[in-house]
């Protein structure tokens, strides 16, 4: 049963047919955060992304001598499909996977007002890592969007950022997390719907994407790390943030096992402490419902055209009842 405070059912984390519907409803219609301009400072190496089976290439052709220069940054899809991209005045690069997404301004209403208060071009890119995990992309975002689990899952993190202060503010397609309101330049976490984050804490900055795999129970985690310190300082920061990421990874693999094994069906979310989860899951649900209705209408129209009217079979009536939009 739909209720404003209920989680998405476990089937939304496991069903292959629903996953494909989600791809069309969410990923192909969204904007994705690729990185601050400092990610693209090596002019010789294009940066390659794969999001929801679409490969994007970022090239920076601005003159090397200009240092941080965003004028020459271009983004294109490997298969030459048309996409859109946008660089904010504060130096953050975003891209779509198709032309089905709305304009940047329409999608991220109010984002630049927030990001323009921070200079994201200060910290140089230091390292990027990537690995696969056995969990649905939403299993990871569920954990990112709340900090109720922080105290018992992240003991070192909780020492520096006590969960008592932790709060999440949701906007149309992004969330701002603040670990401690008295420190404005530390403990800032941004979530960009659907799969990207930007995290300023522990003395550096990191960004991760939870890239959906070809099956619902797999994701590829991609992390980029930014830091201005010495090699030793960076390694210390890296160790700290990696510890937090590994703790989350373990939690997600276990949660996914519970979702796939029928241990966990659905539950109720805390409207204050889990408002970030409620916000993003609601948006997923809305996008999927809208896409379902859209595709159903198109199919009905096609059938009516073929048979001269009357066709009513929708997506939900597939051969094995595969899609069950609840
Ligand atoms: Fe966590």
TrEMBL record:
Enzymatic class: oxidoreductase
Organism expressing this protein natively: Hyaloscypha hepaticicola
Full protein name: Choline monooxygenase, chloroplastic
Catalyzed reactions per annotation: choline + 2 reduced [2Fe-2S]-[ferredoxin] + O2 + 2 H(+) = betaine aldehyde hydrate + 2 oxidized [2Fe-2S]-[ferredoxin] + H2O
Stretches with biased composition (Gly residues): 308-319
Region span, Disordered: 300-326
Residue stretches in coiled coil: none
Superkingdom of origin organism: Eukaryota
Matches recorded under Pfam families: Ring_hydroxyl_A
Similarity-based family: Belongs to the choline monooxygenase family.
Domain Aromatic-ring-hydroxylating dioxygenase alpha subunit C-terminal, residue spans: 122-175, 188-288
PANTHER family listed in its UniProt record: CHOLINE MONOOXYGENASE, CHLOROPLASTIC (PTHR43756:SF3)
Residues annotated as transmembrane: none
EC number(s) per entry: 1.14.15.7
GO biological process assignments: glycine betaine biosynthetic process from choline
InterPro entries with a match to the protein in the record: Rieske_2Fe-2S_sf, Ring_hydroxy_dOase_asu_C_dom, Rng_hydr_dOase-A
């Amino acid at each position: 049963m739909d209720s404003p405070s209920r989680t998405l059912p476990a089937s939304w984390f496991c069903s292959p047919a629903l996953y494909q519907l989600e791809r069309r409803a969410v990923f192909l219609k969204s904007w994705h955060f690729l990185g601050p301009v400092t990610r693209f400072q090596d002019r010789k190496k294009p940066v390659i992304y794969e999001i929801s089976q679409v490969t994007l290439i970022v090239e920076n052709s601005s003159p090397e001598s200009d240092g941080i220069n965003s004028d020459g940054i271009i983004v294109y899809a490997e298969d030459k499909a048309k996409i859109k991209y946008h660089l904010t005045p504060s130096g953050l690069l975003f891209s779509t996977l198709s032309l089905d997404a709305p304009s940047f301004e329409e999608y991220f209403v109010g984002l630049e007002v927030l990001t323009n208060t921070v200079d994201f071009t200060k910290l140089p890119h230091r390292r990027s890592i990537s690995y696969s995990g056995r969990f649905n992309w939403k299993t990871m975002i569920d954990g990112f969007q709340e900090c109720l689990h922080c105290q018992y899952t992240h003991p070192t993190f909780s020492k520096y950022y006590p969960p008592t202060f932790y709060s999440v503010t949701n906007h149309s397609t992004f969330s701002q997390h603040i670990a401690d309101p008295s420190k404005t330049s530390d403990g800032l976490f941004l979530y960009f719907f659907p799969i990207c984050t930007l995290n300023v804490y522990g003395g550096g900055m990191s960004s991760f994407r939870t890239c959906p795999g070809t099956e619902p129970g797999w994701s590829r985690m991609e992390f980029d790390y930014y830091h201005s310190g010495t090699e030793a300082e960076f390694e210390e920061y890296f160790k700290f943030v990696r510890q937090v990421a590994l703790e989350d990874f373990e939690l997600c693999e276990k949660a996914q096992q519970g979702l796939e094994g029928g241990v966990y069906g659905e539950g109720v979310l805390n409207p204050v402490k889990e408002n970030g989860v409620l916000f993003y899951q609601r948006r997923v649900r809305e996008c999927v419902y809208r896409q379902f209705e859209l595709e159903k209408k198109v199919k009905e129209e096609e059938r009516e055209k073929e048979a001269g009217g009357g066709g009513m079979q929708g997506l939900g009536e597939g051969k094995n009842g595969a899609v069950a939009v609840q």
